[in-house]
Amino acid sequence: MTGVPTSVIAATGLLGGYAVARWTKKRPLGGVALAAAGAVAAKGWQEKAGNATAAALSGAYVAAFAGSHPLAKKIGAWPSVCAVAGGIALASWVAVDRRK
Asked: Measured in whole angstroms, how far is the alpha carbon of residue 53 from the centre of its chain?
């Protein structure tokens, strides 16, 4: 793994996945970006904090993605994506990155 914190990778995956889907108008392409960043983050979580933490944070990552959709109907798409990206970044930092 590189020296990039997993919190940054996870947040970038959510933000980047949405941005790619929106700007290319190809949702599957955004899904590829989201999944690729999620896989890199999960590998980092597993290496740095173990399987249980990686599983919990991976579940939170998927829940953040899913939860951004109904939240977007209330506060808008970009604010929703930013909120869930911030949430997963915070969770990742607390569980993994601050240990360094």
From this structure: 15
User: 70 is written with which tokens?
Assistant: 């109904």
Q: Note the pLDDT tens digit of each residue in 36-76.
A: 999 999 999 999 999 999 999 999 999 999 999 999 999 99
How far apart (Å, rounded) are the C-alpha atoms in residues 88 and 94? 10
Residues 6+ apart with CB under 8 A from 52: none
Contact 14, 69 (CB under 8 A): no
The string of pLDDT tens digits covering residues 12-38 is: 999 999 999 999 999 999 999 999 999
Residues 80 and 72 sit within 8 Å (Cβ to Cβ): yes
Residue 12 Cα to chain centre, angstroms: 6
